[in-house]
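Re: that chain you flagged

S.,

Sorry for the slow reply, it's been a week of failed gels. I finally had a moment to sit down with the sequence you sent. For the record, here it is as I used it:
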Amino acid sequence: MKKIITGFMVALLFLILADPSIGQNAPPAEGGILPKISLPVPGNEAYRKYLGLKWDGTFLIPQIKAKVVLIEIFSMYCPHCQKDAPVVNNLFSRITGDDVLKDELKLIGIGAGNSDFEVDFFRETYGVKFPLFSDNEFSAHKLLGEVRTPYFIAIKINKNGTHKVIYSKLGGVENPDEFLKKIKNLAGLK
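Prediction finished late last night. Pasting the structure tokens below so you have them in one place:
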């Protein structure tokens, strides 16, 4: 019996080590890359223009025309996300109100487990002006390590199309000016 249990434990350990998908539920690490998250190109022309997307279908986040993309993982049902929405809206206004930053830094939101209806409800209820995407099946959420909400990830996109994660943290934006300064410093933006 002891040999069977030992053999089972060795086989289980082998399976865990051999399958790279096991244990990959950690959020994207700073210095690493973002998992390949496919999102629908928005039907809203203003959002398309904001993101620099000129095609239909889907896109990957590093295809957004910007030097830095800031991603908020939120949920319509998250009281912290609801409370933080006006502050994030303020952050977005500061970005789009800056003649240089408005082209270099883009902000999007992904509603973890939220349907299109729920994302639209959140957008309308909290007056969100930046693109929000539904993640009804938790697909992106799982790829991002099933993070709690709100969670912010910033990626810096290089001219050759590669990217790296420069910020990955749980929690809201307490002070838009300080948060923006931190992201700009991490990204090397002026």
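What I noticed first: The radius of gyration is 19 Å.

Talk soon,
D.
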